[in-house]
């Protein structure tokens, strides 16, 4: 996108700039594009996809503020669960151009403001630490997914990609659900010494900001993402990037959800308790805190629809009924890295089969699939053995089966399928 700077004839005064920023005016958006063009920050090598970030938010069952009514299990049974935590799902509007009515994790596309040099002032205490104090990943850069490996400095951004992706996930979570994950700047010294030794806690957000403060800032951030920077500056808080652990990288397959396609970095974050949550009634029309097993059961009961990445990742989380165990695993595993997964969709016997990397039929050169060259159905019939399977079989929108025999990379876990969920869920582990 190229900014139309026909209205920008000179540098605005500080007062004028603030006025534009506060009102979220069109002139302000044009100025931001003029000052921070996307092409300088984003990975322009991605022709088919827009870069995005998503947050898998798990929270302990101790309920806070306005979230009490949202804890009711999705099936309405009220049955007890072996899980001691819930996961946040947001229902997209029926008017959404991408996956309308789907239940998704919070998230959205990267914005040029996520790479803005103004963040250097917010994180100035961390500028001498690599990646603002984030732990380094052991995975060799040549095998890293491009969304993580791209050198953003060469694209004109002083903000490391792994920082900007986390800022994006936190900003979008605030915009869509009202959940603001920040830490006060007065805790900078503690964070620089041990940023990963505790759960992320919403206590600062819950108790330090008055009830009128969050809606005001949320409205401003929804008008212009750059207001997220201004909010952090004025409230003297830091986006809690250290609480987000690298989890996965999924790409939208060809032709499955229309022309819009995303290269999405998924992060895991564990909260000690469920924070106050509120949908924006624009992109998001409903929110729900439920356990991974409840969500999968409700999906199979056709009470809600989730996309294959959500199905896969929630099934992975079924390994961990306890929040402490999930947090420990996510924290320890995150430094290993992750694979880039571009599903390749084939049609056989009126079933969609989504091939994932490692499957014996997954193409060596997936770039052809990126351009729309699908694997032929006949290839699935040539090798009847069950070796090297990594695929999602979709019989209908609400009947999904995982067929997996491969070993996961980077110390990750395969999805777990419990017989109690449904006879439709079968995991070949």
TrEMBL record:
Its cofactor is Mg(2+); Mn(2+). It catalyses: CoA + H2O = (R)-4'-phosphopantetheine + adenosine 3',5'-bisphosphate + 2 H(+); octanoyl-CoA + H2O = S-octanoyl-4'-phosphopantetheine + adenosine 3',5'-bisphosphate + 2 H(+); an acyl-CoA + H2O = an acyl-4'-phosphopantetheine + adenosine 3',5'-bisphosphate + 2 H(+); tetradecanoyl-CoA + H2O = tetradecanoyl-4'-phosphopantetheine + adenosine 3',5'-bisphosphate + 2 H(+). Its EC number is 3.6.1.77. The keyword Lyase does not apply. Residues 363-388 are annotated as: Disordered. Residues 70-312 form the Nudix hydrolase domain. Keywords: Hydrolase, Magnesium, Manganese, Metal-binding. It is an enzyme of class 3 (hydrolase). PROSITE patterns: NUDIX. Belongs to the Nudix hydrolase family. Fatty acyl-coenzyme A (CoA) diphosphatase that hydrolyzes fatty acyl-CoA to yield acyl-4'-phosphopantetheine and adenosine 3',5'-bisphosphate. Mediates the hydrolysis of a wide range of CoA esters, including choloyl-CoA and branched-chain fatty-acyl-CoA esters and at low substrate concentrations medium and long-chain fatty-acyl-CoA esters are the primary substrates. Highest activity seen with medium-chain acyl-CoA esters and higher rates of activity seen with the unsaturated acyl-CoA esters compared with the saturated esters. Exhibits decapping activity towards dpCoA-capped RNAs in vitro. This is Acyl-coenzyme A diphosphatase NUDT19. It comes from Ameca splendens.
